[in-house]
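Saturday, quiet lab. Running sequence design on the structure tokens for the scaffold JK sent over.
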């Protein structure tokens, strides 16, 4: 009889997902205090060191269970495939760059908006996945369709809907994913 074992197949994605779950548990047991102090980025003083910490940690916090599950579904679906192709260090860099990019855009342009969650990373992964068969001098049709469906949909939603969803984070994440997808496949 052949034995099977569970493998830690995607270190960056699994570690990130685990940190999101821990942040969610911590936020739950502190009755929302953890998100307010560590896992949400908002326009706070640049003399406060936590402002810079939250530029990175806001992607770990989630508002509620459906928010966490929605983001983790995309990250756990797409992340391991991308990590296998690009490596753990690259995927970690993409997660960190997306976190900082969404936080900076939010800080500069949306002074009254608090931001938490990993949806920017989801959109980076979605757009990056359309570049997996990229060849020099070609634009993959999958990229065009994904950009139109996902990013175009977010632009539309930002214009016509008033909800608690950060379309900006989705769009910025998509841009980060497009840049990394193109640059890493340019060879």
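Result came back. Writing it out in full:
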């Amino acid at each position: 009889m052949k034995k099977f074992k569970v493998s830690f197949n995607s270190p960056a994605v699994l570690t990130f997902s685990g940190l999101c779950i821990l942040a969610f548990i911590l936020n739950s047991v502190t009755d929302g205090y953890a998100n307010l102090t560590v896992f949400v980025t908002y326009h706070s003083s640049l003399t406060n060191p936590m402002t810079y910490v939250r530029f990175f940690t806001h992607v770990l916090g989630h508002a509620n269970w459906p928010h966490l599950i929605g983001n983790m579904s995309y990250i756990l679906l797409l992340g391991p495939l991308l990590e296998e192709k690009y490596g753990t260090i690259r995927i970690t860099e993409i997660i960190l760059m997306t976190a900082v990019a969404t936080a900076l855009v939010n800080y500069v342009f949306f002074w009254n908006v608090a931001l938490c969650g990993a949806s920017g990373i989801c959109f980076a992964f979605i757009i990056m996945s359309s570049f997996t068969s990229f060849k020099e001098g070609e634009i993959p049709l999958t990229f065009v369709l994904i950009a139109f469906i996902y990013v175009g949909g977010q632009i539309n939603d930002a214009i016509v809907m008033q909800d608690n969803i950060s379309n900006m984070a989705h769009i910025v994440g998509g841009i980060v994913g497009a840049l990394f997808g193109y640059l890493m496949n340019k060879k």
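Notes for JK: The two ends are 45 Å apart (CA to CA). The chain has a mean pLDDT of 88. Ask whether to fix the surface positions before the next round.
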